[in-house]
Write a structure and sequence with these properties.
mainly alpha; 2 domains; globular
């Protein structure tokens, strides 16, 4: 008979969170292949043997991060309400994705690095939950377009465009800030520009 796992102590919870936050820093900067357990342990302020008490491998830490990330990443798209006003719903989704790029740049780069490697640890989620959700919301957007409530657009490429135009500001942050200079806020400017762009694109 399997025993129920004991709940973690406060110190164990603190160390687990320290490891995950450190791993997020290291993986988002170095990618999975470039990251090492020694780097993660150093950033977390723990010894490598102590880290291995909580996670048996680099792969285990990476999978823990990716598993939580998928739910977070899909939440704004899930929130798109088929009963809502179409342009408002799409614009709210775009705005939330831009906010996530501002608030969660490490998570965005972690996701991007995984995709660039061919999604070896996320393909099941991409082909499963992500595709199912995108198919569902694409059908909603198509129905809005067919009813004349928004301009005729390919719903899949509309979603891809929102991903590209918002996550760019996290994944290419250094380039964006270098081009704009230190006195400009890329996210404030991006919000205004993307509002105008999508309002014009979606106007029936």
């Amino acid at each position: 008979m399997n025993e129920t796992p004991r709940p973690q102590t406060r110190i164990q919870r603190r160390n687990t969170e320290a490891i995950l936050q450190a791993a997020l820093d290291v993986f988002s900067a170095q990618g999975f292949r470039g990251a090492t357990l020694d780097q993660i342990a150093e950033v977390a302020g723990l010894s490598k043997p102590n880290l291995l008490y909580y996670f048996p491998s680099k792969e285990a830490i990476h999978l823990e991060l990716l598993g939580g990330l998928m739910d977070v990443w899909l939440a704004p798209l899930r929130a798109m309400d088929p009963a809502g006003e179409p342009r408002a719903e799409i614009m709210a989704y775009m705005r939330r994705k831009l906010e996530m790029s501002r608030e969660m740049p490490r998570e965005s780069r972690l996701f991007a690095n995984e995709i660039l490697q061919g999604a070896p640890r996320m393909m099941a989620g991409i082909e499963g939950d992500l595709k199912t959700l995108v198919d569902d919301k694409a059908a909603v957007i198509q129905a809005w377009a067919d009813a004349g409530r928004i301009a005729p657009v390919d719903p899949y490429h509309l979603i891809f465009s929102i991903w590209a135009l918002t996550q760019h500001y996290a994944d290419f942050d250094v380039q964006v800030r270098a081009v704009l200079g230190p006195d400009r806020d890329p996210f404030a400017e991006a919000g205004s520009f993307l509002d105008m762009l999508f309002e014009r694109l979606l106007a029936p």
